[in-house]
Write a structure and sequence with these properties.
The protein is mainly alpha-helical and 427 residues long. Helices cover 71% and strands 2% of the residues.
């Protein structure tokens, strides 16, 4: 029964994408964080977000074939953003299959994660979003989804002991399912992204009342991320806020640096009660730190055995499972908490260099766009801070190949191109 319902839903979703890209793009954005609500489709387990991503790909392919066969368009403009950088990373992962004991499994991993990631969350949005209005719809989808995550997080405080035990915002079950993941880091990373999307939407808005509402939504979402007491979230948010404040107040910083410093000190003093709560948590969180250290040791050991091509893409969990120390102490193996360890162990130096090259290309595009269009397109700064925060978070987390991280990067790239089109120098 479920298989038939999934098939019908897939067909309806494909039709939606074909008939009107805007609602389809909204659906792709809104469902991006729903990574833990899975459907069984014959022998496959498909997360809901990936199901929507597959719909988007099928719909685009059908539309593309229609334009070629029936519409007989002589020229179809296709865009492949970040293609060369991603291609280098793909090549590094394919080369790692020479060291993979089961190359077909490695090829499936590349297709399942890397190719699907690029096709659904970078290529499709770039080629479907032709208007600024559609871009805003996509950003609205992500922002509303982050608000939903935040509200569910605040609701998780209900029933917790606020006096005699540590309390935090965490993921809650919806009818027995944790749709956003069952770990507080999984919601913290998305909240740190979603908060700054409200600031981007504020920059597009003109009424003062709407701007105030966006500011309130920003505070609610950011506060939820802070109240997860995720160390990675705190580091990410601190970096995001520093970049946002310093970039926005570059001129003021030059003239009144002492006043800015006084403001920063005041904010730190106001945050002291939360810092105290964090210290309590970390005193009881030694196991988590030791877990990460051991994962890093496993990554280094396996990288040192095959440093050039690595052990084979998609094998990190398998490598952890073969480590007796980890399984004896922590039980079931888990994926790497950080892209550096994972890529180094699986794809070696080639994979790591190609990944760093990809990040450098993204950072270069962000900085060049901000320098050129920051004043004429003020929404670019919060968009790129959101995108950069999601990517930076992956130094500590496991969502490096997930759409909720990469979709906002694609949207920031699209916004930069729109800014260049509207405000760039005309030939």
């Amino acid at each position: 029964m479920i298989q038939y319902l999934v098939s019908i839903g897939l067909a309806a979703g494909v039709a939606l994408f074909i008939l009107n890209p805007a609602p389809g793009i909204f659906l792709l954005s809104f469902t991006a964080p729903i990574i833990n609500w899975t459907f069984s489709f014959y022998s496959l387990e498909i997360p809901f977000s990936d199901l929507i991503a597959v719909m988007a790909i099928i719909a685009w392919l059908l539309s593309f074939l229609y334009q070629i066969v029936f519409a007989k368009q002589s020229k179809i403009d296709l865009k492949f953003p970040l293609f060369f950088a991603f291609f280098c990373f793909f090549v590094a992962n394919f080369l790692s299959l020479f060291n993979h004991p089961h190359p077909l499994n490695g090829f499936y991993y590349i297709s399942r994660w890397l190719i699907l990631l690029y096709a659904a969350y970078i290529f499709i949005p770039t080629n479907l979003i032709k208007k600024e209005k559609t871009l805003k719809i996509a950003i609205w989808g992500l922002a509303l989804s982050s608000l939903l995550v935040a509200i569910s997080g605040w609701l998780s405080l209900y029933g917790q002991d606020w006096q005699s035990s540590f309390f935090r915002i965490k993921s809650i079950a919806w009818w027995g399912i944790y749709p956003f993941g069952d770990n507080h880091n999984l919601i913290a990373e998305f909240l740190s992204v979603g908060a700054f999307l409200w600031l981007a939407l504020k920059e597009w808005s003109k009424p003062k009342r709407a701007k105030r509402i966006y500011n309130i939504l920003f505070v609610i979402t950011l506060a939820a991320a802070i109240m997860t007491f995720s160390r990675a979230a705190w580091i990410t948010i601190a970096l995001q806020l520093c970049i946002y404040i310093l970039w926005r107040n570059r001129e003021l910083l030059k003239k009144q640096g002492a006043l800015v410093l006084l403001g920063i000190i005041t904010i730190i003093l106001l945050m002291l009660p939360i810092f105290w709560r964090m210290k309590i948590l970390q005193d009881d969180n030694i196991s988590s730190t030791e877990n990460r250290v051991l994962l890093t040791e496993i990554a280094y050991q396996n990288w040192s055995e095959k440093p050039i091509l690595g052990q084979g893409t998609g094998r990190f969990t398998e490598l952890v499972a073969s480590n007796i120390r980890f399984t004896a102490k922590y039980g079931a193996p888990i994926d790497s908490h950080g892209f550096l360890q994972k890529i180094a162990a699986e794809s070696g130096i080639l994979g790591l260099l190609s990944w760093l090259f990809l990040i450098i290309v993204i950072v270069k595009k962000a900085v060049s766009g901000l320098r050129e269009f920051d004043k004429s397109a003020p929404w670019l700064l919060p968009l790129w801070i959101a995108a950069g925060g999601g990517l930076f978070f992956q130094i500590f987390n496991t969502s490096y190949y997930k759409g909720k991280v990469w979709l906002i990067i694609a949207l920031a790239l699209i916004a930069t191109e729109f800014a260049r089109k509207f405000y760039g120098k005309k030939d």
